[in-house]
Design brief:
The chain is of the alpha/beta class. The chain has helices at about 15-25, 55-60, 75-80, 85-105, 125-140, 160-170, 180-195, 205-210, and strands at about 5-10, 35, 50, 70, 110, 145-150, 150-155, 180, 200-205. α5 links the parallel β5 and β6 (about 145-150).
């Protein structure tokens, strides 16, 4: 069954995937309102509300009814600077955002996790992502969509030397391990948002590529 989300809450609108998703949302005539808090000012649009500041402080100030929430937050250990700082963003802030979205009436949360997310993983990054997924499941969402993309491909503002080296090779990997462009991921997220179903759905990278074509 398909529905049309009209009032959207988006976290991470200035990120690689978030900016593509924001552009798609604002070009959908059925979307009535996009509430997108961000650290820096976004380009003005008649259907965009853009509170500016740290998301941690903005969450309590967000208001208005929401149908669907997208969480495109995510960092790397290098960007965060420490394991504690990474967890604060990729676990704590994601969970707090989801909680606030639910308080505003959202019934469907779509969140970007990661390939290999597992709360029992020996790899810190994958373990935090898995614990984040666990925490979101515990919130009791009517509809929760967890997407697990492989390496995200596309131009970034910040330089990531390792990703530049591995990106060409990621296209050669099989199935869910093959890299996925942020533009395709954004299209897949929107398509998933149009689907109405109960419970939790986990979508791996190979299916995301198919949905985003």
């Amino acid at each position: 069954m398909y529905l049309t989300p009209q009032r959207i809450l988006l976290a991470g609108a200035t990120g690689l995937t978030g900016e593509h998703l924001l552009d798609r949302l604002l070009n959908e005539p059925t979307v009535e309102r996009v509430l997108a808090p961000s650290r820096k000012q976004l380009a003005a649009h008649p259907r965009l509300e853009n509170p500016v500041g740290p998301l941690q402080t903005l969450l309590a100030q967000l208001s208005g009814e929401i149908d669907t929430a997208f969480c495109c937050l995510g960092s790397t250990l290098k960007e965060a600077g420490s394991q504690e700082a990474f967890r604060a963003i990729d676990h704590d802030l994601v969970v707090a955002f989801a909680r606030r979205a639910r308080e505003l009436g959202a019934r469907h949360l779509l969140v970007i996790s990661s390939l290999g997310a597992d709360p029992d993983s020996s790899i810190f990054y994958c373990r935090v992502k898995g614990e984040m997924e666990q925490a979101l499941r515990a919130q009791g969402w009517p509809q929760l969509t967890i997407v697990r993309p492989s390496q995200l491909l596309g131009p970034r503002m910040e330089v990531r030397p390792v990703e530049r080296l591995t990106a060409p090779l990621s296209y050669l990997l099989p199935g869910k391990y093959r890299g996925i462009s942020a533009c395709i991921l954004a299209r897949a997220l929107w398509r998933l948002a149009l689907e109405e179903a109960e419970g939790t759905r986990v979508v791996e990278s190979d299916e995301l590529r198919r949905l985003g074509r």
